[in-house]
Design brief:
Elements: H1 3-16, H2 27-32, H3 37-66, H4 75-97, H5 99-105, H6 116-125, H7 138-166, H8 178-193, H9 200-203
Helix pairs in contact: 1-7, 3-4, 3-6, 3-7, 4-5, 4-6, 6-7
Amino acid sequence: MNIASIVQISIGAILINNFVLARFIGLCPFFGVSKKLSSATGMGMAVTFVLAVASTFTWIIDKYILVRFNATVLQTIVFILVIAALVQLVEMALLKYSPLLYEALGIYLPLITTNCAILGIAVINSQDNVFTGKPYTFIEGVINGIATGVGFTLALVLMAGIREKLELANIPKPLRGLPIAFITAGLMAIAFLGFSGLNFIQNSGG
């Protein structure tokens, strides 16, 4: 694996195939925690950590246990169990070291367990790499998980920054709250469509 492959995977996960703004995955925490920049940053870091660690463990379990013993039918169940355990660790760590952030994230913190972005990246890492057409290697899978978390955090922080500004704007009453958030998310998604022009990276040598 070379630097070009790392760049391809990173740009693809962060910009071109951003889970929130391009694939519309993980929208529940995206809208629920993006009211304040501080909570959005905390959620983004928590999700990125879970994605990185989940990518590591799920790849190893899938490669050396599920595939080896022809038990890939249990893939989804096993991945969810691994993710749930990791989220519990994150919850305990935040409760002990950052109780304010723990309170700010509220119900959305345990919802990381059912965040389809985390399960999605675990499943994607068990399939073929879209850039090479070959199965993801261990390093590629971990990088893909981290980059996906960075992309999720980027979308969350951008949305939070905009929503904080919108709180000070004179918005028509029917559009206040979630309606204007949906419109903003749609405009952000359209903006991110511009990165689809970077798809030439997928066809370049790696």
